[in-house]
Amino acid sequence: MRKYLVIFEQAGDNYSAYPPNIPGCIATGATRDEVEKSIREAIVFHIEGLIEDGLSRE
Question: How confident is the model at residue 1 (pLDDT cuts 50, 70, 90)?
């Protein structure tokens, strides 16, 4: 599986994460562990959608 840089941020009691090179792909949650799991799922979902639409993953 390809690796992506993911930025994690904490704001108050919440966390968020996003890969800067995948616009619109984000995850939020109450814990870093929750957000890490969610962003992995979001990236896979996003890439699968690109493949289904015949678009580049770059």
Answer: low
Q: Write down the pLDDT at residue 57.
A: 66
Residue 58 belongs to some domain of the structure: no
**The total number of structural domains that make up the chain:** 1
- Beta-sheet strand order (sheet of 7-11): 7-11, 14-18, 27-29
* Enclosing domain of residue 40: 7-52
Q: Is residue 1 part of a domain?
A: no
58-17-26-53 Cα dihedral, nearest 10 degrees: 30
11-46 pLDDT per residue, tens: 999 999 999 999 889 999 999 999 999 999 999 999
